[in-house]
Structure formats: C-alpha cells, structure tokens
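WARN retry 2 of 3 for item q-0093 after timeout on previous attempt; input resubmitted unchanged.
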Amino acid sequence: MTWEDALKIYDDIVEACSGFERKGKKMIYTSSNGYMFTLLNKAGEIGIRLPKEEAIKFMEKYNTGHYYSYGAKMKDYVLVPESLWIEKDIMVSYFEQSFSFVNSLPPK
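OK item q-0093 returned
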C-alpha cells in the first residue's frame, strides 16, 4: 500500500469522527487538549494513543505492538495493523476513544 493510500484511509476515518480534524501536511496527526492522539508516520503506519491498560488489550487482541514514528517509540501508542483499517466502525471507535483519553488528561 502506498503512503497516499494510507493517507486516504486515515482521512476517511477522521472524517467519520466527531469533534476533531486531521492536522499537518507532512506529519499527519490529530490532536486535542495539547496532545497528539493519532498519527500517520512516513512509513504509512497508523498509531493510536490509548490508556495503558487499553493499549495492552489492543496489542493482545490484534497481535500488534508499540508504534514507532521517525525511529522513536511513541509512548502510549499502539500500531494499528493494516487488516483493521478496512473496519471503519472499529477504527472510528478507537479514534474517538483516543480523543476522549487525551481530553481526560491535564491540558498542556
């Protein structure tokens, strides 16, 4: 899958969500309350920031791991497997859960 294909899927998911929009031109992300909560890295991988317990459950359920962007492990982020990208309802649910999570944190 090309980076442009991944961007289209990411944008479709964000557009189906309420309360936030995609930001960035080269570094693609969503943010709220001073925190980024989803990312599309230059490798065309989607990462979602989740509470620690939810991140562990996600990684076990979808047999995935931590998310890396520009070679750095992103704290509290999980790598979304490409097989899940076509499950738009599930992806929207996780994006919105991530949005709620960062809005529960103290503002930056």
